[in-house]
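Task: encode each sequence below as structure tokens.

Item 1
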Amino acid sequence: MELIEAACAGCGTCGAECPFNAITMRHFTDDQIMAQVEAATEVDPSKKVVAFCCNWCSYAGADFAGVSRMQYPPNVRIIRTMCSGRVAPKFIEKAFARGAAAVLVSGCHIGDCHYINANHQTQKRVERLWKKMDKIGLDKNRLQLVWVSAAEGEKFAAKVKDMKAIVDSVSLEEIEKSKKMTEKG
């Protein structure tokens, strides 16, 4: 197989979709993202929300919430990706395996993706993970998906506030169960 670099849009969806881990992204590599997940879950992971935010919309929305001094719980740890399409299931599973109470995946609104339709793949992946969580007996509400534009700081802050209730309700037994999520395949 030959890669045509000029055809690359840069979203990272191909890297997230590749079942063989044969695609290495130039920026936002798997190793870089995994290291960020590890850092985000290093201290008190059972009290944390790990949030994967696309660079163009949701990360900018989170930034807008911050600079506008909108109040939301400080337990969210944001990991910036080029696109929500870059968020591979293994990143989400790693956060749960490390003991994160909840995971948020956030990207551009459907129809407004900077990479045309990469967020459609994000939605499919998250839906597959919800099914997997359901199958192994995990509370699928611990994984949330939200579309946030750069101007929607209030929406981002509101979602993080909603997730605090989820974090507060997660039992240590549920956390331990989710640590084994990747083992069940």
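Item 2
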Amino acid sequence: MTYLRSLLFTLYFAGVSAAMTIGLSPLLFVGPRSGIVWAMRSWASLVIGGLKHIAGIRMELRGAEHVPPGGALIAAKHLSMWETMAFHLLLADPAMVMKSELRKVPLYGRYAERAEMIIVDRDAGAKALRQLITEAKARLAEGRQIVIFPEGTRVAPGAPPDYKPGVAALYGHLGVPCIPVALNSGLYWPRRGLTRKPGTILIEFLTPIPPGLPRPAFMAALEGAIESATARLLESSKAACG
């Protein structure tokens, strides 16, 4: 049954993504950026709704009180494609830090550009960090929340952490609290393969880290918070599954 539901969801996901990406493409050329934001939120809503009704995967949000209404830095664990969509629903207008390779995805890359996401070439070294900081400051000034995955890519649940310097650079230059985010999405939407396992994805916004910490102290606090909370969510989910 899980295989059949996974297959049906994969077909649904592909169909919805293609229909919306192509059908709403006029927004890429006319109209305000708010139309693009609406399109991306609508796509995310349909996909996550499909997960619930087709694949049996629900979402439980914890710690929403830790997210300020205005600009902030949000640093999240990255176990699945799921969270790249969920943040469009959990936050009003997130500015997500994305790798430049996604710009090459037909039409999706253009949507990301028009939504004014922060697209960074990770191979550009110091230049990429300067671009990251400059664009993040601009988005923050607009009252948007900056979302970054500190490890830079999806990792398997339980894999050793490998935090990159980008999040520390943002924290040091933006002067705002950093909200760590833990989740267990990789148990149900793995980073590889088409199987979608029924269950509840937990996503938890943790206690904000105040601005102004020295870089080593910040990185230790961030990694400690995310990794310990993620391990807790993974353990509780595995125990619930028996």
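Check on item 2: The chain has seven helices and seven strands. The first strand starts at residue 57 and ends at 62.
End of task.
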